[in-house]
Write a structure and sequence with these properties.
By secondary structure, this protein is an alpha/beta fold. The chain has 17 helices and 18 strands. It is globular.
């Protein structure tokens, strides 16, 4: 689909002490549509805090929260301004930067099911991002699996899967996934890859957001580091926890990794709003790249990947985990971590007996590191405590229907 054939809608929010103004800008209108939702700044911030409390304590209630009338009122005007399939640009303000508006349901389905959704800090930043767009995406630099305890279970697999989808892959994995090596690779004068992909632990520092970043083999790559680079990169993907969170400053300037990457020259970023699940993240991002390779835009690729992940069954996910484990060295930390992941999936699907057998075998084995054995004991105890209320469900039940798994990633900047 060419950029000229896509109808683009811009929806901008402005939060005040008395309500939230919504500006809808459509191609056919001479002036914006303006609406007001009676949700005060204090109420919005309290609501955003409630959302992140649910993330930590009661993830199963996230869908109910997003279906609440307050958030649906903020998204409902898009139904009038955008037809299904139109590209929707959202310009959040204040605490709205922290909320996944694309996951709010309209007529029983999330906005992202109806429309590809992209974020931008402002209309002026959007014009800058469009000007940075690259004509092709053939090269990728994958930075993955720096040493960590416990090890990232699917990081190596994701690095391999991503690199195979590009004609010119370059992979920095394990000890080579270092801050010093990456900084040198991306210095001004070196050829920038078309896509820069990270699979590593991310950290958000609310007190000092410029210290937010990605943990690499020899230290953290921070937002401050990124500001010193010149990135002629079409897309930066941060498959990391909380990589997209930013702090607010007067004038609504966002200080954090997203803004730093765009300022450094990246045309777009794909980042997460909260701590992500490694398995569902790996599946989502691999599917995103497959859609991108098939010729879809970044925005449409993300929309399709999210819809695909919501439809996956427990049987689909277990087959994936078992296929990955078959490629690993028996008894290695990665194989042990993956066995624990399989046990977790089995317990979620209601196959408590098999899950407990895996956990008990890991506890009895001498191979796993002490930390993994302790984790296996804790998980086995949790399963046993919950066993009376667990019922075996069909393997055809969906594995990741809740927004926690499919909704954390947001695309910011250029959509094409």
């Amino acid at each position: 689909m060419s950029a000229d054939s896509v109808r683009v809608i811009l929806v901008e929010y402005y939060v005040t002490d008395h309500g939230i103004r919504i500006f809808g800008i459509v191609p056919e209108a001479q002036k914006p549509e303006v609406l007001t939702v009676r949700l005060t700044r204090a109420e919005l911030r309290a609501s955003a805090n409630d959302f992140y409390t649910l993330l930590r304590r009661e993830r199963s209630r996230m869908a109910d929260y997003l279906a609440g009338e307050a958030l649906r009122a903020l998204v409902r005007p898009i139904q009038e301004w955008a037809a299904p399939g139109d590209l929707v640009y959202l310009v959040p303000h204040d605490a709205l930067h922290r909320l996944p508006l694309h996951a709010v349901p309209l007529d029983g389905a999330p906005l992202a099911e109806r429309n590809p959704v992209v974020l931008t800090p402002s209309a002026s930043v959007l014009r800058y991002c469009w000007s940075q767009r690259k004509a092709s995406r053939s090269s990728v630099l994958v930075v993955a699996a720096p040493p960590s305890d416990p090890p990232m279970t699917f990081a190596h697999t994701q690095a391999t899967a991503v690199s195979r989808l590009f004609a010119e892959p370059e992979v920095l994995v394990g000890g080579r996934a270092s801050r010093a090596g990456l900084m040198e690779r991306l210095r001004t004068g070196n050829d920038s890859p078309d896509v820069l992909h990270f699979t590593a632990h991310g950290v958000f520092e609310p007190i000092d957001p410029m210290r937010s970043g990605v943990e690499l083999a020899d230290g953290r790559l921070t937002a401050e580091d990124v500001l010193g680079l010149s990135l002629a990169v079409d897309l930066v993907v941060l498959g990391s926890c909380e990589s997209g969170l930013s702090d607010r400053r007067p004038g609504d300037e966002l200080i954090g990794l997203t803004r730093a990457l765009l300022y450094a020259g990246a045309a777009s970023t794909l980042v997460s709003l909260w701590r992500v699940d490694e398995l569902s993240t790996g599946l989502l991002l691999t599917r995103f790249y497959e859609e991108l390779r098939a010729g879809n835009s970044k925005a449409e690729s993300l929309r399709r990947a999210q819809a695909w992940l919501r439809r996956l069954t427990h049987a689909d996910v277990l087959r994936h985990a078992q296929d990955v484990r078959s490629t690993l060295v028996p008894g290695s930390p990665h194989e042990t971590a993956l066995l624990m992941e399989e046990a977790r999936l089995l317990a979620r699907a209601g196959d408590v007996g098999t899950a407990l057998r895996i956990y008990d075998d890991l506890c009895a084995a001498r191979g796993p590191a002490g930390g993994l054995r302790a984790q296996a004991r804790i998980r086995a105890a949790q399963v046993r405590l919950g066993r009376p209320v667990l019922e075996r469900r069909s393997e055809e039940d969906r594995a990741f229907p809740d927004p926690y798994h499919w909704a954390p990633f947001v695309l910011t900047g250029d959509w094409c």
